[in-house]
């Protein structure tokens, strides 16, 4: 029977690193420098936000790597939380992945893919007469409906690809990532060697003393940076399909995050040498422009716009694919623990959780209709950092509960590194509530909606005598 099939361990360390990088490198490296400029008004502070965001991400990754090394299995943090805390908290995490964190990530990436395609081949308007139709004055589902429809088609096509088998999705991610790296290095090389480069754009240290940046604005700017760094934890979701997961997953997480930090700094220095802060602020204000496109336009003209638009298409395609592949595994693990609907816990003939993939694709498609790119990403970061903090707290709890357990990896800098990360998570959560109340409220509502679902499932299985 389908539900007697087992996941197969076929992925080595190389694929773990590929999935870490492929789940991270998406739209943020192209788009997020503009909202950061609008918040900080300083190139030096922007680079500081990228560096601090990278360090904090690394602290979180190091902490998560110890937990992953000890408990690695299909479902990632869902499995960890069940052992660290309890079944209820693990369910709320998995429910949050399904309702907002993973599915909204997929939606956001597909949306940027469609926007980039629209800049190359204009997508015709669909239902233009319904553009101003809203739900409660908050959601405008038919606004840019042609672009949104394209994003939905992409989600459903990639979902179908991943239903055919694990290696199909993994092979696609590997090929796309290689092309993305090549494209980014081309931008850096030609951008930094262009005659119009202005190093003064990002080397004016007087920006640090002008007093225009507050702790709150720095945190808010880092919402943008963290979206660009978001996704490294997803590799834990495929723990049941990784060879020697207790060693390869921690190694892969740390190696992948280091690669990303280096690439992001290199690319953003390139942007800042080509575009001034006022130009970046104008790009953000326009709403329909992408910073990377304008940077490449400045030295390659119309041909450069086509090149960068194709690269963004490729990058978001790869990240959407990786997010779809890894994202469906926690719901599969939840169903097999009787913490989700039973049909989601079945594997198809290709040994992949096809029902889980399908329902994830359907809900991600609904979220495409719900909001703009920045609304979705701020909502994701608010939700995910609640659980990032809980994961790092798990390092302390497991050291006390399982002091003699063999740990293939122990977090560097314990207890300072996980403690700093936990405090940062708390600060970011409260700052988002103050600075982005609507996104925080929507995110929290979707998370708390899991409570009645949990109670329903508990009663259902109890009545069945499970």
Question: How does this model look, in words?
Answer:
By secondary structure, the protein is an all-alpha fold. The protein has a single domain (10-127, 137-463), classed as Amino acid/polyamine transporter I (Up-down Bundle). The chain is 71% helix and 0% strand. It is built from 17 helices and no strands. The two termini are 19 Å apart.
Percent range for β-strand residues: under 5%
How much helix, percentage-wise, in residues?
over 70%
Low-confidence stretches: none
Number of helices: 17
Mean pLDDT: 83
- Distance from first to last alpha carbon: 19 Å
Specify the overall morphology.
globular
What kind of assembly state do the chains in view correspond to? single chain
Name of the CATH first level: Mainly Alpha
Q: Please indicate the count of domains.
A: 1
State the CATH architecture: Up-down Bundle
């Amino acid at each position: 029977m389908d539900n007697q099939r087992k996941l197969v361990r076929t992925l080595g360390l190389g694929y773990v690193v590929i999935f870490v990088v492929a789940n991270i490198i998406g739209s943020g490296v192209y788009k997020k420098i503009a909202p950061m400029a609008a918040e900080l008004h300083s190139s030096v502070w922007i680079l500081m936000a990228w560096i601090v965001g990278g360090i904090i991400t690394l602290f979180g990754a190091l902490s998560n790597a110890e937990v992953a090394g000890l408990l690695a299995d299909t479902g990632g943090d869902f499995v960890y939380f069940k052992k660290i805390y309890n079944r209820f908290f693990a369910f709320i995490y998995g429910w949050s992945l399904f309702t907002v964190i993973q599915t909204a990530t997929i939606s956001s990436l597909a949306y940027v893919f469609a926007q980039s395609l629209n800049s190359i081949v204009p997508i015709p308007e669909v239902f233009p007469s319904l553009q101003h139709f809203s739900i409660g004055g908050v959601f405008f589902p038919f606004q840019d409906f042609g672009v949104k429809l394209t994003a939905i088609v992409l989600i459903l096509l990639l979902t179908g690809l991943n239903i055919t088998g694990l290696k199909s999705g993994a092979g696609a991610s590997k090929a796309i990532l290689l092309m993305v790296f090549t494209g980014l290095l081309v931008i850096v090389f030609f951008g930094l060697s262009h005659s119009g480069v202005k190093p003064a754009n990002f080397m004016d240290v007087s920006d640090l003393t002008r007093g225009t940046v507050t702790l709150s604005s720095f945190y808010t700017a880092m919402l943008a940076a963290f979206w660009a760094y978001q996704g490294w934890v997803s590799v834990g979701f495929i723990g049941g399909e990784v060879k020697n997961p207790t060693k390869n997953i921690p190694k892969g997480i740390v190696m992948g995050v280091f690669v990303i930090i280096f690439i992001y700094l290199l690319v953003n220095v390139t942007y800042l040498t080509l575009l001034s802060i006022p130009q970046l602020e104008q790009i953000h204000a326009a709403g329909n422009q992408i910073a990377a496109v304008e940077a490449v336009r400045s030295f390659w003209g119309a041909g450069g716009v086509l090149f960068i638009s194709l690269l963004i298409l490729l990058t978001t395609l790869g990240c959407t694919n990786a997010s779809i592949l890894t994202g469906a595994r926690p719901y599969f693990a939840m169903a097999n623990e009787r913490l989700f609907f039973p049909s989601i816990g079945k594997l198809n003939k290709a040994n992949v959780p096809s029902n889980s993939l399908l329902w994830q694709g359907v809900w991600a498609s609904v979220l495409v209709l719900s909001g703009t790119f920045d609304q979705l990403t701020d909502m994701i970061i608010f939700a995910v950092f609640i659980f990032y903090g809980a994961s790092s707290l798990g390092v302390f709890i497991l050291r006390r509960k399982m002091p003699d357990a063999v740990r293939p990896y122990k977090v560097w800098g314990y207890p300072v590194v996980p403690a700093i990360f936990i405090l940062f998570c708390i600060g970011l959560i409260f700052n988002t509530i103050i600075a982005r109340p609507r996104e925080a409220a929507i995110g929290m509502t979707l998370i708390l909606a899991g409570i009645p679902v949990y109670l329903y499932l508990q009663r259902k299985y109890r009545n069945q005598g499970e």
